[in-house]
Design goal:
seven-stranded mixed beta sheet
Amino acid sequence: MSKSDLLRQLPAVHEAVKDISSEVNGKPEKEITRAVQDAINHWREYILKDPHAIDLKIDIRILVLNSARAKLAHPTDRIRSLINASGIVIHTNLGRSRLSEKSVARMSETARMYSNLEYNLEKGKRGSRHDLTEELIKQVTGSEAAMVVNNNAAAVYLVLKGLAKNKEVIVSRGELVEIGGSFRVSSIMEESGAELREVGTTNKTHFFDYERAITDKTGMIMKVHTSNFKVIGFTKEVSSSELMQLKKNHPELIVYEDLGSGALYPFQSVGIGDEPLISSVINKGIDVVSFSGDKLLGGPQAGIIAGKKEIIGILKKHQLARVLRVDKFTIAALNETLQAYLNEEYSTIPTVRDILKTPEEIREIVWRLKRKVEDHSSLTIRILEDFSQVGGGTMPDVKLPTFCLGIKHSKGADYLARAFRNYQTPVIVRIKEEEVLLDLRTISEEELLTLEDAIRSID
């Protein structure tokens, strides 16, 4: 069969739409038409470009209809809810931290109604959205003032642009990190107009390295908490509290620490990692810090800047503050998350709750699931010990002991993982030695029934 013959087999749009419409009740006709048009275009391009197209034995019309049906059932270009059975708590690719029920409820309420986003109820006139989060941040961190922007990279950029433009910023070579998507501290600094002054070496930076680097051009000393990697062995770094001693002879210097992940829960106290508490850094008198809202804090995507009132005041008035500001939904979710910390309701924050889950708790849930699905004729199912990860570039050296449901299929682990991803509510797993592992650390009670059905649906 020639390519011309195959192209003639492509159905007319209106005919294909008519064939599919009865199968997808409730879908708008325009959406069905777009799906059909995309499918026709896809197969037309395949026929024209692929030399093997002429070997097709299936009716092109059937391929078009199946492609359109698949797109309508599972649109790949839209955000979808899924189940995270990878055991990675702060999974960047899966949206990082899941929000608490109170945060979700407050976002929903904020969406349904008007709000006092920029309205001062007491004075009856325009207000500032900064005021809606500042007091809560001050209470949980102990800072004099605070503000919120749309992520921590934006926070770093604003701090450098607003406080150190055309000035030198001293940074240890061992702290010039690269975060996800190839964004580097050095590149952000270059874009901000600040001039990077590197000191020390990759593994060792001393107090005197900073001291000797200070000149009339120096505007800031920046410390970057290397939360996404560890340098071990022959190392030396200078703490932010030590750096504050430099202000005795250089009071005009600003000492800034990018804390990255931002812990408000003392994970160190339960033997998990060495992430510093934000409040402990603030209490040392540092001028300004920044950290993420959707990592260890367990809230929405945001960059939180906290510190001295005079410095935060400068940043609030900077023109970029409007460019980088957050919306009402972020404020609503962040406030509920911060309130949970104030009330010490840590178990209501999914990120904190899941990191703190004990192996015994997880084993009990895994055992319950295994008993329900172990009669599956196509699968070999067992319980095994393994390790979960915190994720999100946070605590890279921390392994959280866990229990997993290990599943094998005669067609292999890749087939099984794809089957889970193609389930109506996609399930993301991990593969280890040709076995699919379901780590239930990141599964809620409400998701267990869906996960059970996903396992049973596999051929």
